[in-house]
Amino acid sequence: MEQAFPGNLLLFHLINATASPNPLLRALAVFCASDLVWLLLAALAGLWLAGTAEMRFRLLLAGLSAALGLAANAALGGLLATPRPFMAGLGHLLIHHAADASFPSDHGTLFWTIGLALGARGPLTRFGSAVRWAGLAVAWGRVYLGVHYPLDFLGAFAMAFGAVVLVLRQEPRLMPLALTLERLRAALPGLLPWRQ
Predict the structure, then answer these.
(1) Rounded distance, CA 181 to CA 74, Å?
(2) Residue 99 is inside which H or E element, if any?
(3) Residue 185: helix, strand or coil by DSSP?
(4) Between 153 and which of 2, 8, 106, 139 could a Cys-Cys bridge form, CB atoms 3.0 to 4.6 Å apart?
(5) 138: exposed, middle or buried (C-beta count within 10 Å: 0-12, 13-18, 19+)?
């Protein structure tokens, strides 16, 4: 797939690290590529536990969007089986990574489904915007480190957008699930002493 888009390869070589990268730039890339996802998951858990019922509903929609997007990625990745740059002998690989499908990026899909879903409306729109920007940092880091092509993130954004649109169209139908989760939360006040 990458050979079918020469601009993809050109952009990959422009972003990918040199054989002897600047140590600070490499550390920043590793943080963006690998550690930001853990910060995102911790922030989502904190918002779920300490947030309002409306915030938890928005987080539920974002989580369902992410699950749908990642499931679609798995299906498409298995179908296309696009090799990662290092599998094709391209660029410089600076971190260990499994030799699995490159397109579309799961990291990109995760960040952009969460960011788009939360940014659509509700009390977490600013957080959603920050997550979308963080997705760009993740994309840069993973291309810089040699585990993705830029096109993998364009595919991730398309997957994220489609998943969010599909889930948000079902928003009224998902209200009963949200209410069930709120009732379960209310039934466990001693374990969950945070805001209702």
Answers:
(1) 28
(2) none
(3) helix
(4) 139
(5) buried
| Cβ-based neighbours of 127, under 8 Å, separated by 6 or more | 43, 47, 118
CB atoms within 10 A of CB 160: 32
2-58 tens-digit pLDDT: 555 778 999 999 999 999 999 999 999 999 999 999 999 999 999 988 889 999 999
| pTM of the predicted model over 0.70 | yes
Task: Please give the Cα distance from 178 to 100 (Å, whole number).
Answer: 35
Give the C-alpha distances (Å, rounded to integers) separating 8 from 55, 120, 144. 38, 30, 13
Query: What are the structural domain ranges in the chain?
Result: 22-186
